[in-house]
């Protein structure tokens, strides 16, 4: 059956033992912008039912309760494909609507399969040469006392930031072009690369393998989701340095990330979200 997932990954990222303070809220701070070189923004930012891709001059912030499940996510519509912005908006909208039922990797797999089928069907209805496509990086927040699900497909990323440094939780679905090139500081833009997996896109329909990671929600950690408009120009250590500089001011951190991306040419759409657990 076209677009059906047959497999997925489900692993657990552990942290040090200890109860720590109970997390009851999250502060989400995000930005999206077309960047300096693109005519339009094909990214989409989603925060607990709110979504947007209009150019932002300053971060948007939302204080979120853990009383009900929700998703925070970024999606990158595939450039060079018809309907890239439409694909990313569909992915974010469906994720927001169905966050309540995304309790495990199997439920995530089912949603991704349905999204793939929807984008293939949309291409036929609109006469597109190929299905529109999108990446996805999302944190599914399932409620107080429960671990989150970190989900990604494509090259949009999820990081955990703590006093121990910045750790990538997501898995890039890419392979390098032009021979083996050593990456520096884990940037996606060191060498040319192509996606080997996305929701929709030129190879759809196909079997997909979403990456699903169970992550304990801790008050001493922050979580950073971003499209490759950030990681093409900034590496782990640079993101970590800005997080340390602006540890107590999430809006300042996000403003600094955006400014750094633009200072380095802003070659792609820029979208990201920082989540801070609160007591």
Brief sketch in words of this structure:
With 279 residues, the protein is of the alpha+beta class. It has helices at 84-98, 105-126, 228-231, 236-245, 250-263; strands spanning 9-12, 25-33, 43-47, 50-52, 60-65, 70-76, 133-134, 136-141, 148-153, 157-162, 165-168, 174-176, 193-195, 199-200, 211-215, 222-226, 270-278.
Note the main attributes of this structure.
279 residues, alpha+beta, Phosphatase 2c, domain 1, 7-stranded mixed sheet, 6-stranded antiparallel sheet
Could you walk me through the main structural features you see in this protein, from its secondary elements to its overall organization?
The longest helix has 22 residues, at 105-126. The protein is globular and about 50 Å long. The protein has helices at residues 84-98, 105-126, 228-231, 236-245, 250-263, and strands spanning 9-12, 25-33, 43-47, 50-52, 60-65, 70-76, 133-134, 136-141, 148-153, 157-162, 165-168, 174-176, 193-195, 199-200, 211-215, 222-226, 270-278. It has a single domain, classed as 4-Layer Sandwich (Phosphatase 2c, domain 1). It is built from 5 helices and 17 strands. The chain is α+β, with helices and mostly antiparallel strands. The N and C termini lie far apart (46 Å).
